[in-house]
Amino acid sequence: MNDSVGNSPMNDPLAWVNGSDAPEKSSLDLGFMALSDCASLVVAATQGFAQPYGLTLNLKRQSSWANLRDKLVSGELDAAHSLYGLIYAVHLGIGGVVPTDMAVLMGLNQNGQSINLSHELQQQGVVTPEALDRHVHQSRTKLTFAQTFPTGTHAMWLYYWLASQGIHPLQDVDSVVVPPPQMVAHLQAGRIDGFCVGEPWSASAVVQNQGFTLATSQAIWPNHPEKVLGCTQAFVDQYPNTARVLVMAILEASRFIEESNENRRSTAQLLSGRDYLDTPLNCIEPRLLGAYDDGLGNQWQDPHALRFFAGGEVNLPYLCDGMWFMTQFRRWGLLRDDPDYLGVARQVQQLALYRQAATALGITAAGQDMRSSQLIDGKVWDGSDPAGYARSFRLHALAAPANRQALR
């Protein structure tokens, strides 16, 4: 990595490690999954961003999102690179888990996930959304799609995208859970026909000629929320200073990654190591730089590629971002009734803590708690009427709680 990493400008971090602002816990175990969007945690832990705040960050790679969830709830992990929907599912007690008060400290990234289809479907000419729609409705056998966790972002992007193409994700196709690093092997073995996952596994499938990228998540929702820094509310209550300086260290790492393409390249090199993604650099670096090759001969520089900072826009835990995932849980029958969308989001999203950390670093933290976005189907989401939004979709499973999946 660049030697300047550990000397990044900051507003006298020693002020945050002395006296009443000192972190109550100095050594933290942070969980992560082998995905490109864990980058800011890896950079913060290994490149000198945490030590000035009196923190030692011990990175713990997890084998599945379910394992990460269980260790986060039990306290074996202090905080983690997490799926937005995982944090909300635990908070709401979805899928048979005991409800536990959870916290989103900050957003870690936006964009950068993909839906891939198999080489076999490619050979059959199923290379467009229209062709997939025809295949699904004319074939006698159901296609099987993998996502990474029943309430996770990848399940929600997959369901939303399929529904926007007229394909009911819980009736017209089968959906299974596969940990991210195992996606390509399952595709190669013919156990699944497609998947939605984070990088580098979509790019890896293309590089290995095991399929192609049909859609990106940023095409579904430009600058959508993705991974978060999650923990239990008990951690925030017990270690408020620690939580704040942890956000500051990771914010600085996020800012560093985006300062230049050189920094993105050095980050890709770091991530490729055995302890992190353990994957060839050519599967990581291009899409981390926004350069896409879909495996069908199309190449482009994506204007909404994976981003980690964007002046802090990525990192602000907007209330409406958390609320959106709850609307989709309701839409697909994971919630039997409408929750108190705004009330739950205000409990989970640690806006005040994030703004303290951002302000201390001279990062402008937007005054709004909501934002407005238009998704692939033309619908606008702004958080103003979540219950109405959840009911507004033509394809849904509101009356079909039997379709709910167990969170294994």
UniProtKB/TrEMBL annotation:
Q: Mind telling me which GO cellular component terms the entry cites?
A: endomembrane system
Which InterPro entries does the annotation name? NrtA/CpmA_ABC-bd_dom
* Predominant location category: membrane
**Would I find Signal among this entry's keywords?**
yes
Keywords assigned = Cell inner membrane, Cell membrane, Membrane, Signal, Transport
Q: Which domain of life is it from?
A: Bacteria
Q: Does the keyword Membrane apply?
A: yes
Q: What is its subcellular localisation? A: Endomembrane system
Q: What CDD domains does the database record attribute to this sequence? A: PBP2_NrtA_CpmA_like
The record, for PANTHER family, names: ALIPHATIC SULFONATES-BINDING PROTEIN-RELATED (PTHR30024), NITRATE_NITRITE BINDING PROTEIN NRTA (PTHR30024:SF7)
Identification of the protein by name: ABC transporter substrate-binding protein
